[in-house]
Amino acid sequence: MDKFESFSGVAAPMPLVNIDTDMIIPKQFLKTIKRSGLGVNLFAEMRYLDDGSENPDFVLNKPAYRSAEIIVAGDNFGCGSSREHAPWAIKDFGIKCVISTSFADIFFNNCFKNGILPITLPQEQIDVLMKDAEKGSNARLDIDLENQTVTTSEGESFSFEVDPFRKHCLLEGLDDIGLTMEKAGAIDSFEAQASQARPWV
């Protein structure tokens, strides 16, 4: 997992509430176990018309938001089934951060495990960020995980809370495997001692 670094990015406004995981990545795309390649299917049912062409009215198809790295969303983002393909698709598209008033617990946890920063802010602050995002590609939000701030294109800054351990993992690029590998020395030592103590195992 790549280290999460502070960045300035275009934010796509998605004011819908209850955006569930089936909307994020529809069930027909769940056959793969690869984390790559799902970005093209992100929000497929809203993003594409019945003939397979792009829906010009969907936010991520608009020129200003094709390179969006942030989503500013309505309440209860990521609800529904617990499919990990949802954060995989978001990450593969290039989204690094999702900001909402609330997230479904499983989706929220899966974001951290896949290098995505989910930020929870009160509605009045979301309203400000949504309005800023609606300005298009000329309005970029600054995401600073180290200092835990989101700053609008006009310089208004909001602080957010994040669990210290999860913050550490994002900043260091540590997923569950990476955390385990940090203990590689201790694991090797234990295995060597166990092998000597129980050679028949």
UniProtKB/TrEMBL annotation:
Pathway(s) this gene product operates in, as recorded in its UniProt entry: Amino-acid biosynthesis; L-leucine biosynthesis; L-leucine from 3-methyl-2-oxobutanoate: step 2/4
Judged by the first EC level, this protein's enzyme class is lyase
Documented EC number(s): 4.2.1.33
GO cellular-component term (any): 3-isopropylmalate dehydratase complex
Which GO biological process categories is it annotated with? Answer: L-leucine biosynthetic process
GO MF assignments: 3-isopropylmalate dehydratase activity
Tell me which UniProt keywords the record has, alphabetically. Amino-acid biosynthesis, Branched-chain amino acid biosynthesis, Leucine biosynthesis, Lyase
Q: Does the keyword Amino-acid biosynthesis apply?
A: yes
Gene3D superfamilies tied to this protein = Aconitase, domain 4
Similarity comment? Belongs to the LeuD family. LeuD type 1 subfamily.
State what protein this is by name: 3-isopropylmalate dehydratase small subunit
Q: Which gene encodes it?
A: leuD
